[in-house]
């Protein structure tokens, strides 16, 4: 919370580089940080306004709060809540009513022309595919506000599209449950945000030494310069890449001046 207000692009890169490492624990990280990341764009003047100050404060508060996501417990069935809008899909992975992960994704122009039924169906498939590593081993439950989908396993497959989609669920143990849209607030909100942003969050265990590496970058001028270049143009310094605030060289963690 005591992090000073950035006075230059370089200082802002330092803050966002560290903050980005924890983005998986902050819901709508990209939405909150958008005014700040806009200042990193090429040919953008660094002018700090009230909008940037508010985003900076909100992001610091989110980073200093306990993560709202729980770690998965494989002894308890998982629940997926899905909802779609005209432009995208939102989904929440839950266990005992506690959120484990969020996802929202915009539909491609081709998929935006699908029927409501097909969009709801596609939303379920996107969520199941994204969290397949959690779901393949035991029965799980899918909650949707589209009532006709609860009879998915009993319906005749009249089209090639239905056959293709249904095949993607084969081998999984699942039950689809109807849940009114008014009671499905999280997924509902995520689906309606998908047209402007994509945000993903997932709970996981990370190594504490990586945090030390990221902090160490702040005292390494070469690392800071590399962070700035990679944040602005991810492909500008091959074979270096930037992954959640960590600089990688050919997919290996690059320590810079860290010892």
Q: What is the distance, rounded to the nearest whole angstrom, between the alpha carbons of the first and last residues?
A: 27 Å
Second CATH tier, the architecture of the largest domain: 2-Layer Sandwich
CATH classification, class level of the largest domain: Alpha Beta
Which percent range describes the beta-strand content? 15-25%
Rg from C-alpha positions? 21 Å
| Tally of alpha and pi helices | 9
Our count of domains comes out at 2
What fold name goes in the CATH topology slot of the largest domain?
Answer: Nucleotidyltransferase, domain 5
Number-wise, the strands total: 9
Question: Care to describe what's here?
Answer:
It contains 9 helices and 9 strands. 36% of the residues lie in helices and 18% in strands. The protein is elongated. The chain is of the alpha+beta class. The chain has 2 domains: 105 residues, no CATH class; 124 residues, Ribonuclease H-like superfamily/Ribonuclease H (Nucleotidyltransferase, domain 5, 2-Layer Sandwich), CATH 3.30.420. α1 crosses α9 and α2 packs antiparallel against α3. The protein starts with 8 loop residues before the first helix and ends in a 6-residue tail after the last strand. About 5% of the residues have low confidence. The strands form 2 sheets. The protein has a 6-stranded mixed sheet.
